[in-house]
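Section: Multi-chain targets

For targets with more than one molecule, the full set of components is provided together so that the structure can be written out for the assembly as a whole rather than chain by chain. Components appear in the order listed by the source. The example entry contains two components.
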Amino acid sequence: MSNILEVKDLNVAYGGIKAVKGISFEVAEGEIVTLIGANGAGKSSTLRSIVGLVKPASGSVVLKGEEIAKLPPEQIVNRGITLVPEGRRVFADLTVLENLKIGAYLRKDSLEEDLNWCYDLFPRLKERSWQLAGTLSGGEQQMLAIARALMSRPDIIMMDEPSLGLAPIIVQGVFDIIREINRQGKTILLVEQNANMALHAAHHAYVMETGRITMTGTGMELAENEEVKAAYLGKARE
Amino acid sequence: MDWFSRNLPYFLAGISVGGQYALIAIGYTMVYGILRLINFAHGDIFMVAGLLMVYLSASLPVFLAIPLVIILTVLIGFTVERVAYKPLRQAPRMSVMISAIGVSYLLQNLALYITGGLAQQYPAIPWVSDQITVFGASTKRVTVITPFLTIILVILLVILIKKTKIGMAMRAASKDFETSQLMGIRINSVISTTFIIGSFLAAIGSLLFFSNYTGVTPTIGTMPGLKAFVAAVFGGIGSIPGAVIGAFIIGICENMIMMLNQYVRFDISNFKDAFAFLLLIIILLFKPTGLFGEKQTDKV
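Its structure, encoded as tokens over all components, is:
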């Protein structure tokens, strides 16, 4: 399988503080790849620099064979990658339908098919399509944020902490959706603090610590790894 | 003369001036909505539109001068944003505000240099500036046209913002730059669009305002600009309906003071301008977010 996204020697700095220190990783087409790590490990900064919200200090980001590291966000998202931001960030004053439409802002073709697809995936959104997004519950807002990202017809979707602040049963639903979207052909790069769920969903996984990638393997390998268990899965070494 | 025909002109003038303030106030409130910037140069853009009309109509027929004034004013508003505000996008908000004050003085001083400080006679626009009689009260036609034109423009603007793609992008960008960028929205073009709309409406406002006024001076933009700003704050800065309602209230109340002036023994007409600022103080004391303002306000 070919790599849809290749990150090489990526450095991200805010002022003098280095958040990401020369990381490299690949995402193969059709996979779920997860990046786990503690708070402040640089996971979000990695995603934000891939999509162009933060300019990387150095390094390369290659999407489908094309270098995108120096492009502005609107040109990057136009090349088939998108980010579901941390904290959902739905447009609270826009209706659910408008949120979906704005997800497809760069598209000029008909949205009918994709709207129906999103409504099939998330029937709650169809019921509430005329409601303001701000009136939805946290879980519904997360679904909307994912659906909004799907509306741009991306090849790869990055998600930043989609389970953050949601009740366990809702988290399960979010992960079911992630698997379902992946099954329907979308590549997913997932950043999570819920390492247990993320590792079990992922084909490949990377562990980030203080701006560096310290471990890599398949999701199951890392889920069984003693160090990972101790540090991220809350299970003591035996 | 009976009571009605004696006082009607004040009502008409109030509604008319209110409409003119509204057209300026929309520029303040839209720019604030998206950039959280009080564009102090906006009143001076209004003045420049007045001067442009004076000079262009001297050499061109009015029907050519009017569209040219509008186009040039829009161009100036667009350029001011690109040159004076855009480079400061990452700077603290205070820097942008100081830049706006700088632009305001620059435009005033350029106008002073060009006009030599003399009031320039505003041209009479045929039909619009004609005297007409409404219910026995004599007034200029522009007085009657203004409120209708204002309301039509506001309705068109609301449709633009509610129904079109660029309007949706403006609403999204005014809440969250970063997520808007993730959607592929180019923030700079949304901001430019906002300035273009604001300047366009200020140019129309200028045509209407000066048709009822004696002349254009370099500082003439300050007072209508300030009152429009107060209207925007009163209505809840960032809200378009709020700014329009605020502007009509200020315009009408000002002229009510002039009307009352006929009946009182001492001269209160000087308080006409003070009213808007009294209103500003009252609204800031009792409802700082204005009539339709957002609950959270940012520190300027």
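The first helix of chain B runs from residue 3 to 35.
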